[in-house]
Amino acid sequence: MTRHIGGSLLPSADSRTYEIKQGKHGNFQTRALPELDTHGLFFDSGDGHGFQLIASHPNGFSCDELAKRIIDAWEKNNAWTSAKAITQFDYILDCGGIGRKRVRIEDIILLGEQHA
pTM for the full model? Predict the structure, then answer.
C-alpha cells in the first residue's frame, strides 16, 4: 500500500481508499500510481471497456471522495448532490490534479438523472 505520494509527510490513502466503490451505474476504484507520484480514480461503466482513468490527484482521499460523491448523486438524484460531486472534481483540478474534460465528468454524474 502506497501511503506517502505527492511528497506529503501525511498519509495520502489507506486500505479503504483502494476498495472498489460500487454504484448503480458503474464502479470506481482509486489506485496508487507511484511512477507518476499520484493517485488515479478509475471508472468502469460496465460497457465492456473496463476501468478508465477519469481523474488523478496526489491525495488518494480526494479521488475516493469524488467517487463517493458521484455515487451519492446517483442515489439521491438531486441538484445538491450533483453539485457536490462537481465541486469535488473542481477541487481536484484546482489543487494540482488532472481530469477528463469536465463535460465527461458531468455525463458520468448525470447518469442517475438519465435513468430516473
Answer: 0.89
